[in-house]
Amino acid sequence: MERSRSTACRKKFTSLELTGVINKDLQDMRASVALDTEDTARRKILYNYHWFDDLLADLPCARDEPKYLSALQKLHALSQSQQALKRYTKERYFSIVLTLREWELQLAEVSSVSKFIRERIIFLPEAEYKEWYHQCYNHR
What percent of the chain clears pLDDT 90, i.e. is strictly above it? Predict the structure, then answer.
């Protein structure tokens, strides 16, 4: 506990860039530590979480079918790659989903894939997704 406090204080101090406006300086300092803490927590979860196992559990019949074997092998390789884990962000998810039309998102297959990615790979809260969805698709 004491070590994490010390680390946070060091990060605050090193991120402090004086602009002459104390409120702005303090706000920037707090934001840098908060972002780092959120990112660190997310990375710890991702590195210890194996979403591919959940996918296989959800698709028990797909393991044996040859037409799915190639795709499952590629997904397995992605799930093992630490480099690939860094690319899974909610911003990237949103940019990919924006390429779809609203009716495409409502297809059962697309909807279930989207939900799997949101819940088990990028850990996007349902409320945040719904808010984004209404902003993007209700204003088109």
Answer: 1
